[in-house]
Amino acid sequence: MSTTHVKLSPLGQEEVSTVHGLLTRARDRGQFDATPPPQRVRNLLASPDSAARVVRTDEGRVTGFVSAGPLGLVGPPLARTTFVEVVADHRETEDALFEWAQAAANPGTVLRTLRGSGSAEPQGFAKTREFWRMDASALEEPVPQRDDLTLHAYPTAAADETAWITIINEAFAEHWGGYVPWTPQRWRDRLETDLGGGPQLLVLRDGEPAGVLLSRIVELDDDGARPTGFIEVVATHPAHRRAGIAEYLVRTTLTRFAAAGVTRAVLLVDSTSESRSAAVYRRCGFEPTFTYDVWERQASEHR
Question: How far is CA 101 from CA 31, 85, 98, 110, 164, in A?
Answer without folding.
Answer: 18, 8, 5, 12, 36
